[in-house]
Specification:
single chain; mainly beta; Lipocalin; eight-stranded antiparallel barrel; 1 helix
């Protein structure tokens, strides 16, 4: 596991360096969400609310009457381009979430704040072979 993390850290750092002018950080708030439906290929829309709860985030999606609830950890740069995942913080520029949905499915998601203030990421669910894109826009 440590070897995998060592290999992933430079890739994540490289992605984040591509976005040096972060808008406001802090992933808490209410967002409009748009993504690509993995089954139909059509776009879906809904809302997502992110709240800080102790050292974690609670993330609640409502899309077409279906609700998914997740718990997340934050991530930010510290020191000389070191990327740290850990307790929720106002300085977080990335969010990693594990979630469950109404149909008892579970999945994972990862989002990064963009220079324009949106949060872009990907998610997948148990048994899927796809990474589905999603964009959050602050309300």
């Amino acid at each position: 596991m440590r070897k995998r993390m060592v290999m992933i850290a430079p890739m994540v750092a490289g992605l984040l360096l591509a976005f040096p002018a972060v808008a406001s950080a802090d992933p808490t708030g209410s967002f409009s969400v748009v993504g690509d439906n993995p089954d139909t290929g059509k776009q879906y829309a809904g809302t997502v609310k992110v709240t800080r709860s102790g050292e974690t985030y609670e993330v609640v999606w409502d899309i077409a009457g279906s609700r998914s609830v997740g718990t997340g950890l934050g991530a930010k740069f510290v020191g000389d381009n070191r990327f740290r995942v850990g307790p929720a913080s106002r300085d977080d520029i990335a969010l990693s979430v594990g979630y469950t949905s109404d149909n008892s499915s579970f999945g994972i998601a990862m989002y990064f704040e963009q220079p324009d203030g949106t949060w872009k990421g990907v998610w997948t669910y148990n048994g899927s072979k796809k990474a589905i894109s999603e964009v959050w826009t602050r309300k």
